[in-house]
Amino acid sequence: MTELQLIDVRQLASLLSISVRKLEELILAGDAPRFLKVGSQRRWKAADIDNWMVKKADEIEQQFKKTE
Question: Among 37, 49, 53, 63, whose Cα sits 20 to 30 Å from the Cα of 9?
């Protein structure tokens, strides 16, 4: 069985170089990686964060191509 790496709110905010408050805003807007609820806490799987970052990078790239 592989070890599941779960990331908490502060770790994710740090990884994204944003404040916890900004991350909370992204969550409320539905523009953050999907999360799991562990008790009352949110946790993110590292793989979900990686996938979300790739998706966001692709979206930015597509927007950039449209403006060329």
Answer: 63
